[in-house]
Amino acid sequence: MLYLQDEAQQPGTGPVVYTAERKPYTLQTGDVLSVQIKGVDTELQSSFNITSGAFGGAIMADPATQYVNGYTIDENGDIPLISVGKVRVKGLTIEQAQEICQKRIGAFLRDATVMVKMVSFKITVLGEVRRPGYYYVNNLRCNLLEAIGLGGDLTPIANRKRLKLIRQLPTGSEVAYVDLTDAKIIQSPYYNLQPNDIIFVEPLSGQTPRKNFAPVSLGLGIVSGLVTVTLLVLTIRRDGLVR
Hints:
This protein is an alpha+beta fold. It is built from seven helices and ten strands. β3 and β4 form a beta hairpin.
């Protein structure tokens, strides 16, 4: 079954363009940020950084290292910058958070460049995919098809017309269903993923029992064979051929 089918497009016609407004992600409680400071005075800048070395080390490390070396946004929406104090970043975009950190750190360190990256963009892909699991994204741009690609694509019995997406919001969990066969999904607010989104791919109705048909048939065959052998032995004994 094809993805993103468009009934309006005919062979030989031009491409169909779908436009969608992409809202920038705003930081929430629990997000982890990497804040790295670069300046001329390397000795002084080291007092502001959690880790030493080239910028990007925390981002390229494993998720556990990212969590330890990053700044977690607390319940009040703040991150505790070293030598600076608490900085309110909740509700800001990454660009806005970088701007405010640049201003706060610039008051202590002249000619410094502050770089803020998010290192806790995680999505979970479950159900009828070839490699279910959770995946970390190294940027703030990941759409639904890219997430399915991370999961190794859908299995043959996956229901491409009904994917469940669970999104974590400050007010609770939101559940939405999307149709991958409809090209207009690109315009959906659920096409571009957000951190901590969960994608669950349901099987086609009627296919789940069919998956279990082979083991059930094997079990019935074994039971049938045992019954046949038992009846044969009982028949032989009844006829007096064995004692």
